[in-house]
Structure formats: C-alpha cells, structure tokens
Design brief:
It is built from 11 helices and 7 strands. With 270 residues, the protein is α/β, with parallel strands linked by helices. It has a 7-stranded mixed β-sheet with strand order 3-2-1-4-5-7-6, sandwiched between helices.
C-alpha cells in the first residue's frame, strides 16, 4: 500500500483564504480574556521579548505589551494583522505585527523569552513542524504558553459540525488535539516541561441563533463554508450551529452564556 503525502502548502493556502474571509476579529476580540489569563499564567515580565504566534488580531501580543514586554505578533492573514496594528495604535502600545507562517517563523533561533499562542497555532496543519518552530525560537529556560480548545468542549463540538459539512483534508490531525496534554507530550517530548490546567471561557450572545448568525457572518472559515451551501443546506447548517451553544448553555433567560473548555499550558524549554 502506498500513502499519499499531505500537501500542507495547498492546505495552508485554503486556510489563509478562509481566515481572510468574513471579519474574524469580530469574534476574536471577544476572546481577549483568554490572552490576558495566559500572559498572567506565563508570568511575563517587563522588558521580555514576547512572540504571539498565529496572532490573528493580536490578543496575546497586546496583552504582553500592556505589561511592558517587547511584543511581536506573527500571522499569515494580512487583514488580521492590519486590525492588530489598528488596535495597538488605539491603545498606544508598541506592538510589531509581521506576516509569517507558524510552521516557518520569521525569527532567529532562541530569540524570544516567551512564545505565546491563543487558539492560533493549533490550526497549523503540520502539528509537529509548528511545535518544532515554537521550540526553535524560544530561548533555553524561556516559556511557551498555549491556550487551545479541547476536543470535548463547546468549540471542539462546533468543529465537528463544521467537519460534517466540510470534511477536513485527509491526513491532517484535528486542531483540538493541541488541547490535550497527551498531544503536547507527543509533539514536544522532553524538550519542554509543561504545567497545564483546563479553563472555561464563556461565550455570551443574545441567543443561540445570534451565535450561529455571528459565526456565519464573521468567523472566516465558517463564513466561507456558509457561502458555498445551497439555501436548504444553509438553513440546516445554521440550525446545527445554534444547537452547539444551546447544549452548553447555563443561562435561563433566553440568552447564551455557554462554557467552552480550553487547555491552558505553560512550558519551560529545557
């Protein structure tokens, strides 16, 4: 039996188109608290060099800069970087935003004290290569701090709905594996010593239907998928998206206050 090599370059090109569709920061900005908690967990210090990988609109980079770190964000979606720059300017924060690939970071070896990613690097299709890059650019004794959605949590379940309508490429592992300690151990081996805990982020929307509508309008990969569906399928897809927060909702007033589990992991590079 012969195996077909995974074309990561083609996959990333399609991913990039997805993230550049819609207006992801409309979703991503609501997740800022995850970055604030991650930066605190990493105990980042003023003056340290911090890199936010797959930064999107810069949540972790901005959180680090608020603590007077020398912060840089890197992402391959130019429109997300542009909004990150706008946010940093609005907050008078000296953050550098650079276009680049999480699997080939534009940084020298051992150049950062802290390397961060909030629900970002987990989407790199080649998990091992992305993990190797995180290690490569971190100084010995430096920290790698990650926040990644778990397979069993609400967003993990949302990805299952999306995969039903748009199956992922063959050979690509689910991004939510990054939300498990077992996968981190497999990717990083004895190069990083991890401390991890599960946390809940609460998605707050007007209703389950509002959640579904918001993600279909603004969450790039879902926006792109929704745009390919015929009307009958789109109605069904929208209903299935609404069912996701409904299953995790703790609100009893018609609104959404749905808990989404993620893994917060802080590791020290040996």
């Amino acid at each position: 039996m012969t195996s077909t090599a995974v074309d990561y370059t083609a996959i990333k090109a399609k991913q990039r188109t997805g993230w550049e569709t819609g207006d992801y920061p409309r979703v991503g900005n609501t997740l800022q608290i995850i970055a604030e908690l991650l930066v605190e967990a990493a105990d980042i210090r003023a003056g340290q060099r911090a890199l936010d990988v797959a930064c999107g609109q810069g949540n972790a980079a901005i959180a680090a800069a608020r603590r007077f770190a020398e912060a840089t964000g890197v992402d391959y979606a130019a429109n997300l970087l542009a909004q990150g720059r706008e946010r940093a300017i609005a907050e008078h924060l000296p953050v550098t935003f650079t276009e680049g690939d999480a699997e080939e970071l534009p940084a020298p070896d051992a150049s950062y004290d802290v390397v961060l990613s909030t629900v970002g690097v987990m989407f790199a299709p080649d998990h091992q290569r992305a993990a190797d890059e995180l290690v490569r650019v971190t100084k010995p004794g430096g920290k790698i701090a990650l926040a990644c959605w778990t397979p069993a949590g609400m967003i993990g379940q949302m990805f299952k709905v999306v995969a039903k309508w748009a199956p992922p490429p063959a050979g690509v592992k689910p991004p939510t594996l990054w939300g498990t300690e077992e996968h981190l151990a497999e990717l990083f081996g004895d190069r990083v010593e991890w401390t991890a805990q599960k946390r809940d982020y609460v998605f707050r929307y007007r209703s389950p239907e509002h959640f579904s509508d918001w993600f279909r309008q603004f969450y790039g990969p879902i926006t792109k998928l929704a745009g390919t569906l015929p009307e009958e399928d789109l109605v069904q897809f929208a209903a299935e998206l609404a069912d996701v927060p409904r299953s995790f909702n703790r609100a009893d007033d018609g609104t959404v206050a749905a808990t989404a589990e993620y893994l917060e992991a802080v590791g020290i590079k040996r």
